[in-house]
Amino acid sequence: MTKNPEDYTSKDLATDQDVRWCPGCGDYSILKQMQGTLAEAGVAVEDTVFVSGIGCSSRFPYYMNTYGIHSIHGRATAMASGLKAARQDLSVWVITGDGDSLSIGGNHLIHLLRRNFDVNVVLFNNEIYGLTKGQYSPTSPKGQVTKSTPMGSLDHPFNPGALVMGAGSTFVARSMDRDPKHMREILKAASDHKGTSFIEVYQNCHVFNDGAFGVYTDKDSKAMTTIFLKDGEPLVFAGEEKGIRLNGMKPELVSLSDYSKEDLWIHDSSDRYKALMLTEFFDDQSKEDALPRPFGIIYQEDRFRYEEAMQDQIDKAVEVKGEGDLDALIRGGHTWSV
Amino acid sequence: MTKNPEDYTSKDLATDQDVRWCPGCGDYSILKQMQGTLAEAGVAVEDTVFVSGIGCSSRFPYYMNTYGIHSIHGRATAMASGLKAARQDLSVWVITGDGDSLSIGGNHLIHLLRRNFDVNVVLFNNEIYGLTKGQYSPTSPKGQVTKSTPMGSLDHPFNPGALVMGAGSTFVARSMDRDPKHMREILKAASDHKGTSFIEVYQNCHVFNDGAFGVYTDKDSKAMTTIFLKDGEPLVFAGEEKGIRLNGMKPELVSLSDYSKEDLWIHDSSDRYKALMLTEFFDDQSKEDALPRPFGIIYQEDRFRYEEAMQDQIDKAVEVKGEGDLDALIRGGHTWSV
Amino acid sequence: MTKTTEKKRDVVILFAGDSGDGMQLTGSLFSNTSAEYGNDISTFPNFPAEIRAPQGTVAGVSGFKLQFASVDIFTAGDEVDVLVSMNAAALKANLSQLKRGGTIIANTSGFDKKNLRLAKYGDAESPLLDDSLEEYRVIEIDISKMTKEALVDSGLGAKEIERCKNMFVLGFLYWMYNRKLENTEVFIKNKFAKKQQIMDANIKALKAGYYFGDTNETFTSRYEVESASLPEGEYRSIMGNQATALGLIVAAKKAGLDLFYGSYPITPASDILHELARHKNYGVKTFQAEDEIAAVCASIGASFGGAFGVTASSGPGIALKAEAIGLAIMFELPLLVINVQRGGPSTGLPTKTEQSDLMQAIYGRNGEAPMVVIAPHSPSDCFDTIIEAARISIEHMVPVMFLSDGYIANGSEPWKFPSADDIAAIKPKWADSEKSMTDRGYLPYKRDEKLVREWAIPGMKELQHRIGGLEKDDETGNVSYDPENHEKMVKIRQQKVDIVADFVPEIEIEQGEDSGKLLVLGWGSTYGAIMTAVRELIAEGKPVSHAHIRYLNPFPKNLGDVLDRFDKVLIPEINDRQLVHIINSKFLKGALPLSKIQGMPITSKEIREKILETLNES
Amino acid sequence: MTKTTEKKRDVVILFAGDSGDGMQLTGSLFSNTSAEYGNDISTFPNFPAEIRAPQGTVAGVSGFKLQFASVDIFTAGDEVDVLVSMNAAALKANLSQLKRGGTIIANTSGFDKKNLRLAKYGDAESPLLDDSLEEYRVIEIDISKMTKEALVDSGLGAKEIERCKNMFVLGFLYWMYNRKLENTEVFIKNKFAKKQQIMDANIKALKAGYYFGDTNETFTSRYEVESASLPEGEYRSIMGNQATALGLIVAAKKAGLDLFYGSYPITPASDILHELARHKNYGVKTFQAEDEIAAVCASIGASFGGAFGVTASSGPGIALKAEAIGLAIMFELPLLVINVQRGGPSTGLPTKTEQSDLMQAIYGRNGEAPMVVIAPHSPSDCFDTIIEAARISIEHMVPVMFLSDGYIANGSEPWKFPSADDIAAIKPKWADSEKSMTDRGYLPYKRDEKLVREWAIPGMKELQHRIGGLEKDDETGNVSYDPENHEKMVKIRQQKVDIVADFVPEIEIEQGEDSGKLLVLGWGSTYGAIMTAVRELIAEGKPVSHAHIRYLNPFPKNLGDVLDRFDKVLIPEINDRQLVHIINSKFLKGALPLSKIQGMPITSKEIREKILETLNES
Ligand SMILES: Cc1ncc(C[n+]2csc(CCOP(=O)(O)OP(=O)(O)O)c2C)c(N)n1
Ligand SMILES: Cc1ncc(C[n+]2csc(CCOP(=O)(O)OP(=O)(O)O)c2C)c(N)n1
Ligand code: SF4
Ligand code: SF4
Ligand SMILES: [Mg+2]
Ligand SMILES: [Mg+2]
Predict the structure, then answer these.
(1) CATH code at A124?
(2) N or C: lower Cβ tally within 10 Å for chain D?
(3) Which residues of A touch chain D, with CB atoms under 8 Å apart?
(4) CA-CA-CA-CA torsion for D513, D514, D517, D519, nearest 10 degrees?
């Protein structure tokens, strides 16, 4: 019996497959929030497609009772582009890891973003290659000791927010596995955004990189290291004790005992310059005076979608030349008889 | 007879191969400036390697009397990474096109930049695929009519400066084929920079995209559309009649009859926020109030080079464990006798 | 002085000049007129590798070869009867192709000092002046000057006038071969509809060339090639890539599917993209991807969504697609991969033709990843063959590789085109929300007797399922690490390909007896040359036959039988014995190779000689 | 009650449990002790596909099989003598491998309701309680409980104590096979040097297991496997990937080159990267690239710079490297490409073994792009073979593909390692600024009689040159579109590969007569199983011989002759007849296949049966 999307519960989004992540893996939480979000989204399960690459995170589609593609390493974004171009009517989600999307799949990601297909990309960033058992990834901090870097990694890591801003992303957000409520909000906003939504989720790999985001997720440190962005609201954190203000072109960490909220930077996700600056809040939190890490919607812009522009051209061609006639096509312009 | 690098003239940098670009192609000018720059750089021709991908621009190495690799489409940056890792002592240049480096080769480019190998990347941007006879490229403006897009291209183009800033580039500059003097300055600065230098050169494809950069290179319009950056100097253009000032977080186009130079934005290529903003000067020049396009060194930063860090680890390993002994290696930790 | 007219059965003309000289256009126009005249024609353009190599050099020479005849022909000809040389380099590059006693039409202003030097002729030694061309008939015309004179009042600048000189040559050749100018005049008028001056100038130059032949005393002989006895019907001229593009559109419509074409430009495949992009009013979606991997993946994504996903490239790009093609084989979805082969390996000879990607097509993937491989044998045959490829891919839910090559892609020939109604419908095996449901839920990998699974696409209620590149459990499609299941699935994927042989025609002998001493077995673009050589030899009473393989994987069911009926099998290929290896492996046959790996088609003469040699040996 | 000790020639133990149960470590420790004891050993780990599949399920079972013997052996054995089952799923997954009458050691607490359900046994029907295990000897021990009891005073938490249960089992097996604990104690002491409590607990659990066997009345029989008569010498235990890594370091040093290893992680090749990264003090440069294409390109770049460029991957990654390998073939530079094969196609069965990338290795590139292909046949043989591969690549200036597989890569065996001095130097053919100069300047593609060009690298004065993927003029290396030159170069690249056959050993018969009824021809990891089967049958007087191909392209020069000396040739492969196809194509031989495509090694039993069947047919 087909259920009405309005009547979905989380369960309707789940499959009968055993979920095979390690106990303690952050992926579970994301799965749960996704199922919850989609249960409320009002889109039929048969009109939804999850596309992933290869990695622990990329197992995700098997657990969603929608259509799904578990593709090859790094290519989910490319595959989703074709799918969306062919089928504007579908709700398309891309699930990917930091290796899948930023290492082997980096190129397809940035091209998807500039083309602005209306798909939602959820990047599970655990700063490690989980599935291949623990090599460093393009987001691993320099010096990280992993199987492939016993003396510490040598790569300056990507700042994913900065990279996708540079690539022309129209929706940039960050969330974390340990904050289900926030994650749900963000997933919802991404699903509502028309154009490519890019969501980076800090996800704990319990086995190979446990605690990589501890400073942001642990109760003790979270207040001081994270700032949750809300449009129209000032950048305050640390239990309203601290804030960020703009001193000319420089963000400045201030105490709310010295400044009032009105003096602070007011978040405006439509302001490109500010968004660029926010993605630069990327300090190592052990640094004195580190700026807190922003979570929430950093940037959002409305720009034409590739698939719509593509359909427009087709419609226009039909309008101008008329619906194509096969015999005319085969004959071409010039014929002769024998 | 081997010549002393100090005694080089441009001719010493040229090969006996016929140069095979179309008459009128902007590539000739870049070649000439490169030969001139290297003649003065004091580096021996045998210690210099040019690496390219595939494209008209990628024919470049054949015309440089250095070592050279004409590789495969999009992979010059990857090839140069290995070469530089293996041979720190060499001066390595990458020559690439907008298709070669931003379409098929996009991923290797951004990874090269974050790793900051000490190589110089010169991107010949002609906003078209030249060698394959005229399809649009990732830098072609939306709506461009080309062989593959008879109704106009649908892709929102990359802003190369923004993309490479987002990827963690440590040297970002822009120049043009029609300004030999400026190009020479920039090539020289790139060659001096330690780390990956990224230089975008606006290059005219005479055959398939003639005049794409006309507004920037033509005498008539150039003054109003271009701004030449110099560290420590204010952003003035239009024959010192106009300038850019910072109004809070927003760049503002002002007339020097209203403002003095002291009020203007002073260029500081070490300021990351300003550089991010400068790369956003990417307006279509037909727009009213378009910001002029910046040329020169937009951003420069000193960051560790991958190949040096790699060598440091080797040196450290030798220091700690001693130079490797083959017999010890083969025996391993645990043996027994029969 | 009366001019004589001599009848000829067939003539091969090679228009050669600098890339800027417009030889491609000149050649096409001559072909069109000849076709219209009822000749059978076959053309072969030969571009320089550079966009515009330095003017006047051998590297910069662009050529267009065409054969037209009063009998049916299959190639653009081996030896050239008339070589048009717009400059010294054009002569130098092509003289070796000219028949003994053939005609050279030389543009004398292209043989000045500068041009001679650029063509690397010895110091100021012009071949027009020494006796090196003794064996040929040389017609010297200062084409540049004549054109200039003709257009002195045209109002055009020197450069524009210079550009009309190809029309002068064309006019002259029309005179030589007794052709009317009409057809070309119409073309010029359409092309320059908005540029009256240029239109007029081109027509004037064309006529000037014609009249020059007509009036000039030196030229005493004209030729006539009568119309061929082609089957009656309506014809058009078609190039291989064009036929491929049209076939794709037709196949998609015949299947009721949207065509999605994901591709990354590469010579010589790009023209398919260009052609398709012009037909958006047929609902065609073309996607120029960021690279070949993205192109094939986007096409797979589109197929998953229920479109007909097609991707194309040439050798290097096909290499990049290999991993994703493997995935499509696991998915068991329709996917058409077009390889317009060019000279390899690596970047190789991008503007030259070769058949050297056959092994790659059949074996070039990791694991046991069999796919259907099919090759057209002439420009117009691309149309039928691509529709066949589409039919197999869609009806059997398998990826198919279509192996064209540069020769076919850029060559053209008259085509007695079909009407759309004559083309059979293609029937996707759609799943159905109700009928496809089983007690065990929906089973995406359940198969029919052809081993074909159903195509369930997003939007179909209740049929949600997930597919991936990991090994799948039979029927459910769930990930399975079960050893026996793996073996079963590997074999099923192989059988799915093998079974296609039950649904395609058996191979037939094209010419010659059904059994005998020697079978010449070809595939792809060698068709014309083999046809020509074998036809001649049969006429001479030699015991030789010809068969041509369109279905390279799986082979036609009767191929082994056919081979067994001949003492010897000779396989001409533009590669290093690739089909020979496969035939020998499958049939333990000891087939003989005729390999030519020069970036050029094998000529019928070469095939003829090899056949004779082989017959003599036995 | 006295305990009896029974002598055994060989024993196969399979340690199986949940991925968290530490079975891999347990197995390795038992192997090391047995090796030290003088047994020949062979091991084969079998990981679950997931990092940590749900506990208690069949998908989560991790196994480690080892054979140890008093004779020399070549595989980890077919049928298992002792199956250690830490839980119900472990039993379920592996019971089919257990010999009739074999022993099951079952951890009873792993057979509780929850575990039975997770293992998908019928409702609460425990195999330990019904009579389904009648045919076997079942030893039930509540290992968890015993361990807990032994460690009650250890000061450790419940979880940590639970983790020691593998040591209890190990101790028990040491008792069963009459082994000393010493070796393992030393290991534990080193491993937990800084965690005294854990060290003590592990040793205690180990001893508890031993004493449990020693004192418990139920266990009356012990077994003894005497030391094998291996050749005298010093031995170590080595895994295939490890041997590969060490061989690379040695080869580079022997050639006087820096080793540059560019790679992207992929199962089962990653461990080579991990191993190499540990040896930076040997000057090894490891580069984890952004993808496989970057990895191979970086390695080519390094080779151009004068380093020894090596890259590795498994099937899907090798597919991605194909285009760049073609370039390296054009460059004629040293490049070693390692493929540690796994189950395919596509992502396939990443943690399982297969030999299905042979065709890809030989044919998987566009154009005529021949390369040398070479395969090791056992873990320790990786060392010799990779050095051979390096030698060919460096001395012949050709890319070489090294085809290992998951079975070899993760398997281990005792290795009578050589001394570094015994390994011959590798001699790069360096160019020289003065000697290499000619009248026509420097000619980078000038060749010697082996067709090898010199290696001129940046920094060498006067030898600047530029190379690319476009076809090259013979000698100068400049871009050339000349048709005949292309054919010449295609043939030279083929001959360069063919000529390697002159510099490698001819193939020898491993066992059996030099001619006769049946030759079993193998390649790669089937070696051990074939050796075992053929040895047995020869002992039984059957007319069968064994030869093993290390050099797959080019084949050893005498291979055709060897094949001709046998009536029949049987080729066992873990793929669908790939070598069979090549052999049949080259030698028109009609070789017989024995294919097993289950992601698992072929067993000697399967080979034995096929041999008997084949002999009976004749
Ligand atoms: C072409 C190819 N290269 C490499 C691999 C091996 N591989 C699988 S997943 C993976 C990286 C996983 O890391 P990430 O994307 O961060 O996902 P995670 O497992 O951390 O969720 C790699 C290297 C592969 N499957 N295919
Ligand atoms: C793998 C592969 N794909 C495609 C091509 C075809 N190709 C060659 S150059 C090129 C693009 C050229 O554009 P660009 O990089 O901008 O260089 P330009 O010619 O404009 O200088 C393409 C698509 C190729 N050679 N190899
Ligand atoms: S390895 Fe890490 S990312 Fe993968 S399932 Fe386990 S905890 Fe999660
Ligand atoms: S096609 Fe364009 S880019 Fe290429 S050589 Fe000609 S003018 Fe230059
Ligand atoms: Mg990850
Ligand atoms: Mg370009």
Answers:
(1) 3.40.50.970
(2) N
(3) 18-23, 54, 56, 72-74, 103-104, 106, 129-133, 135-136, 138, 147-151, 207
(4) 100
Long-range contacts of D91-99 (CB under 8 A, 24+ apart): D91/D16, D91/D119, D91/D127, D92/D58, D92/D119, D92/D120, D92/D121, D92/D127, D93/D16, D93/D58, D93/D61, D93/D63, D94/D14, D94/D16, D94/D61, D94/D63, D97/D14, D98/D14, D98/D136
- Using the Cβ of C234 and the Cβ atoms of chain A, whether some distance falls under 8 Å is answered with yes
Closest CA to D389 of D279, D244, D496, D492: D244
Whether A313 contacts chain B with CB within 8 A: yes
Q: What angle do CA C512, C515, C520 make, to 5 degrees?
A: 60
Structural domains counted in chain B = 1
Considering only CB atoms, B167 lies closest to which of A163, A271, A303, namely: A163
| B96 occurs within a structural domain | yes
Rg of chain A's alpha carbons, rounded to an integer? 22
Does the pTM exceed 0.80? yes
What distance in Å separates the CA atoms of residue A94 and residue A79, rounded to the nearest whole number?
9
Ligand 1 close to Cβ of residue A124 (< 6 A): yes
Q: Where are the domains of chain D?
A: 4-224, 236-422, 437-502, 509-616
Low-confidence stretches of chain D (pLDDT < 70) are 1-4, 50-51, 123-124, 216-221, 618
Q: Which pair of structure tokens corresponds to residue C154?
A: 């045209």
Beta-carbon contacts of D11 under 8 Å, excluding residues fewer than 6 positions away, are: D67, D68, D69, D81, D82, D177, D223, D225
- When pLDDT is cut at 50, 70 and 90, the band that residue C568 belongs to is very high
Q: Which CATH superfamily is domain D236-422 in?
A: Thiamin diphosphate (ThDP)-binding fold, Pyr/PP domains (3.40.50.970)
* Helix or strand run (H / E) with residue A175: strand A171-176
> SS3 sequence, B147-214?
CCECCCCCCCCCCHHHHHHHCCCCEEEEEECCCHHHHHHHHHHHHHCCCCEEEEEECCCCCCCCCCCH
Right CATH for C509-616 from 3.50.50.60, 3.40.50.920, 3.90.550.10, 1.10.10.10: 3.40.50.920
Residue D9: predicted pLDDT: 85
Flag whether B151 is in a domain.
yes
Instruction: Quote the tokens at residue C528.
Output: 């014309």
- pLDDT digits 0-9 by tens, D560-608: 999 999 999 999 999 999 999 999 999 998 999 999 999 999 999 999 9
Give the structural domain span for A69. Answer: 5-212
Contact B334/D249, CB-based, under 8 Å?
A: no
Asked if the ipTM is above 0.90, the reply is yes
Architecture of the domain defined by C4-224: 3-Layer(aba) Sandwich (3.40)
